[in-house]
Design goal:
Blueprint lengths: L3 H7 L32 E3 L6 E2 L2 E2 L16 E2 L1 E3 L15 E6 L18 E2 L5 E4 L2 E6 L4 E7 L3 E8 L2 E9 L11 E8 L4 E8 L6 E9 L5 E7 L20 E4 L1 E10 L3 E10 L3 H11 L5 H16 L2 E4 L3 H13 L5 E2 L6 E3 L5 E3 L6 E2 L1 E2 H4 L3 H8 L1 H17 L8 E2 L13 H10 L7 H12 L7 H7 L10 H21 L3 H10 L7 E2 L4 E2 L27 H4 L7 H7 L3 H13 L18 E2 L2 E2 L18 H15 L15 H11 L1 E2 L7 E4 L6 E5 L5 E7 L7 E7 L2 E2 L4 E3 H5 L2 E8 L6
Parallel strand pairs: 34-38
Antiparallel strand pairs: 1-5, 2-3, 4-7, 6-12, 8-9, 9-10, 10-11, 11-19, 12-18, 13-14, 13-17, 14-15, 15-19, 16-18, 20-33, 21-24, 22-23, 25-26, 27-28, 29-30, 31-32, 32-37, 33-34, 35-36, 35-38
Helix pairs in contact: 4-17, 6-7, 7-8, 8-9, 8-11, 9-11, 11-12
Amino acid sequence: MLPLVIAAQDKKLVNYVSPIIGTAKMGHTFPGATVPFGAIQLSPDTDTIPYAVDDRYNGEVYRYCAGYQYDDPTIVGFSHTHFSGTGHSDLGDLVAMPTVGEVQLNPGTADKPETGYRSAYSHSKELAQANYYKVMLEEPKVLAELTTSERVGFHRYTFPKSDQSHIILDFKSAIYNYDQKNIWTVVRVLNDSVATGYMQSSGWARTRTVYFAVTFSKPFKNYGASSTREKVPYQGFWRKFNQNENFPDIAGQKIAMHFDFDTQDQEQIQMKIAISPVSMKNALANMEAEIPDWDFERVKYAGQALWEAELQKIKVDLLEEDDYVNFYTAMYHAALMPTVYMDVNGEYKGLDHEVHKADGFVNYTSFSLWDTFRAFHPYLNLINPERNADMVSSMMAHYDQSVLKMLPIWSHYANDNWCMSGYHSVSVIADAILKGVYKGDARAALAACVQTANTRNYEGIGEYIDYGYVPDEVSGTSVSNTLEYAYDDWCIAQLAKHLDVQDVYDTFIKRSENWRNLYDANIGFMRPKDTNGKFREEFDVLETHGQGFIEGNTWNYSLYVPHNPVALIETMGGKTQFQTYLDSLFSMHLPDKFFANTEDITREGIIGNYVHGNEPSHHVVYLYNIAGAPWKAQSRIRMIMDNQYHTGHDGLGGNDDCGQMSAWYIFNALGFYPVSPASDEYWIGSPIVKSATMHLGEGKIFQVEAVNQSEKNVYVKQVKLNGKTVNDFKIKHSEIVNGGKLTFVMSSKPSKR
């Protein structure tokens, strides 16, 4: 057998991608077919858990944020849009499912799949690869295969011999579903192999429309529909038609359709479904432009070639095969979202629900900014700067179209769902401008940042400006809001400084110190404070729920001052005391009761009381570097990587959150991390690579070498950049993008100099 390093060089890197790797016990990633940042993310869904039961939130639905749960015994169907690793959900549009036998237009139940169109399946007959998924559906004995282009899902179904073969299309939204989510669906059957339509839904995105076009490789012999509609006084005179059988003009709130075929044994029927944010006409044009033929293998391999090009941007030499799987799966996850949100002609629907045309940029959607500003967007600034520049342009277009005049908070499909805290688009924008990635109007960007940060009626910003903190009675997440606003304000100050806008710099650099106003020196933690300036009396430093924080406790959040960590250490008692704090964070035990009410924090994502499974702590381990113990950072970085990232279906210790968890892994595998985006600095850690080559565009290459690398040699004895010793454990962005070589000398013993 060839040594792994030779195998890695000879084999395609897509062979190391494992799309099946997901979040432990949550299933928040999808294993289906897509191309990098593709609008179509075609994947199996394994159940249809309702969002609410008896008008109350159903906690079980949380496991289905991505639609796929590895332990489920049945597949409901294959839907075309998904989120990757989010802690809330939407989408799951346009569910397709091949069936044989009597037509059934309901999904049935997991314990009785025969009562609907779902099917049992086995992982032994399931395969997930980059841009390819296949599974044997046991009940109809149909082999289902999926691949995609950027805007088109391509299905290939191999049927048994039957005069009752069907393809079901269920147009009801399938993820985080409830009775009122689907507002209206229209389907127009144009001929014996083509249909178009649109569906409107109201969920996480309040007003969302998806236009689609469907075409089959074989004419169907019959088709039909079922539609349920809320009882209303007036329903018109459509009763003159039988709308359930072979009627081409269909509309309703909850529509499912069947398309019927006669099939020979092992006959393949193919189907393409294209989507558009604008129109049915554009959906057809997208299909014709991207997949004009029926060559499934060509489309599959073309998509895999796109993935290979994406993965080739960083080539690594690692110690173990599992490390290759983890690394390239992380790169795969970090290229799933945001997704392209425009048609091949450049048209897209804006936040104002008008049709716009992207001028000189690709428009993207699904910005999970509370997560991704930390490492994902800085990662793109290095290996995908053109894409990140387009994403900033997309954020600016969002701002221009917003009647509220705010940059995106958490946006998708021409909506902002306002999820999570902070206004972290300002971090992404400032970071991209300061690093020379975004070449647009920087002063207009600064104005948008300032306007967003001064929107007084949004989540306590007015009180934050007036009091210097968000008061406890104003917001249930008052402390985390204050800390995150303070960091964002620092980002605005850095951008203003860069543009020499002194008054804006003065205002926001002052606001960036507002974190000090919620530090309670009597207990040594951040703590909620009311409008009278009094700290909350009943306060539990371990509880993650109802204490003024979002998805974390004060042990973790008290360390969230990434823009001024030196002052934080001084405020918390100096380096020695701060080291003790960090040691305790990683070594203490957090009992289950303290996160029992927070569904996206589980034991798998926790080390001691350090919550890696949620993002606010992702920079924390690097604080050892300036607390006088960088060797502790090095050992704990390697420990986190070993503990929180694995191969297999439950390989991640927390939600991947649109690539943030994966970007953290990539940076740390290379040996450095952006502790405070909008700074030009990366902090030195402990790499796991033996060597790495980063292709940065324009012929620039940055290399990483770890001399004496091994599982035991986790400590950094020496660091050199282009032959010059690095003494402060920091390197600059310009030093990376200009090309060069970063050399680590590794050791089994800590270097305490």
